[in-house]
Amino acid sequence: MELTLLFPLFFFTLSSATYISTLTLNQNHPSSSSSWRSDDEVMGLYKSWVIQHGKAYNGIGEEEKRFEIFKDNLRFIDEHNSNNNTTYKLGLNKFADLTNQEYRAKFLGTRTDPRRRLMKSKVPSSRYAHRAGDNLPDSVDWRDHGAVSPVKDQGSCGSCWAFSTIAAVEGINKIVSGELVSLSEQELVDCDRSYDAGCNGGLMDYAFQFIIDNGGIDTEKDYPYLGFNNQCDPTKKNVKVVSIDGYEDVPNNENALKKAVAHQPVSIAIEAGGRAFQLYESVSSPIFLMQNNTLQELECFTICHCLNIFPGSF
Fold first, then answer.
1. Do the bridges between strand 246-248 and strand 280-283 make them parallel or antiparallel, or are there none, so unpaired?
2. Cα–Cα separations (whole angstroms), residue 141 to 44, 235, 264, 301
3. Which residues of 159-172 are buried (b: 16+ CB within 10 A; e: fewer)?
4. C-alpha to C-alpha distance for 62 and 59, rounded to whole angstroms
5. Which of 309, 303, 264 is nearest to 289 (CA)?
6. How confident is the model at residue 297, as a pLDDT?
7. What is the share, in percent, of the chain residues with pLDDT greater than 90?
8. Do the strands 267-269 and 4-6 form a parallel or antiparallel pair, or are they unpaired?
9. What is the DSSP letter of 290?
10. Boundaries of each Peptidase C1A papain C-terminal domain copy (predicted)?
């Protein structure tokens, strides 16, 4: 049976998500500098946050530097959360001691290819083109169908593209075979080097093509994730547990994406470099992700662990 992976042209989703725990804040704090939190309160929050996330700073002046960044991020969080008209809340997650520039450099890994995207946009797939009479569900949660593996963490490696690819392959394999098998992101990081660059970024359609050309991909158990670039293991690369026959691009419109997601998980990318994204805690709508951001970064697949983006919800 043919396994087809979908890669939409309009790059919209979040992926290789990790569970983000946050420190609970008292939200009753005005955002003005004259009435903001006291120094003692900020220091208390910082110390609790350091313990919660197991932080340790060894360099001279590093802890003082991280505290000032933490304090600036906390003020940004309070200013945002004081606005009752927003659809999402920010919080002190594990990225709260990083500047936005540091966060982007350390965790985001999309390598966009404008020429390839332009070429593909001229010949989009018609399989999921919206047609009159299409009867599509209002929502689909592929977790309910057992097609989503437990949450994985890419760490500080810019391998989001690999996690997005693997999540989509795991999902379609479950739909077709009835078995959910956790597959190897590390194999893509180490071995898919014709166009992709491991922890320095990649693109999901190149990764799909690698799996096709290789004849399959190994399991996570056999080729476990390390979170850094390593030499390709040729023995494990030749262990082809799950294979795919192809992938295709979803036409560039919302109805086509709804139709595609109704059939299987879809690999997509979203702009995830904004400061609000870095510090998010909870969200009721994904629209905020596209506000005040310019770069397309973090990969994912449509049934996201952290946002649960469903067809028709954006």
1. unpaired
2. 40, 36, 10, 12
3. bbbbbbbbbbbbbb
4. 5
5. 309
6. 39
7. 50
8. unpaired
9. G
10. 136-304
Residue 244 is predicted with a pLDDT of 95
Q: What is the mean pLDDT of residues 143-160?
A: 91
- Pure H helices in the chain: 39-53, 62-81, 100-107, 114-121, 160-177, 185-191, 204-214, 234-237, 254-261, 275-278
Contact 183, 242 (CB under 8 A): yes
Domains of the chain are 4-20+106-301 (3.90.70.10), 33-92 (1.10.287)
Structure-token pair, residue 53: 């996330």
pLDDT tens, residue by residue, 18-43: 345 666 666 555 554 546 899 999 99
Q: Which residue type, as a one-letter code, is found at position 160?
A: C
pLDDT band at 310 (very low <50, low <70, confident <90, very high): very low
- Residue 307 C-beta-side C-alpha neighbours within 13 Å: 28
* Beta-strand pair 267-269/299-301: antiparallel
Q: List, for residues 195-236, the tens digit of each pLDDT value.
A: 899 998 888 989 999 999 999 999 999 999 999 999 999 999
Residues 51 and 43: their CA atoms lie apart, in Å, by: 12
**pTM (predicted TM-score):** 0.74
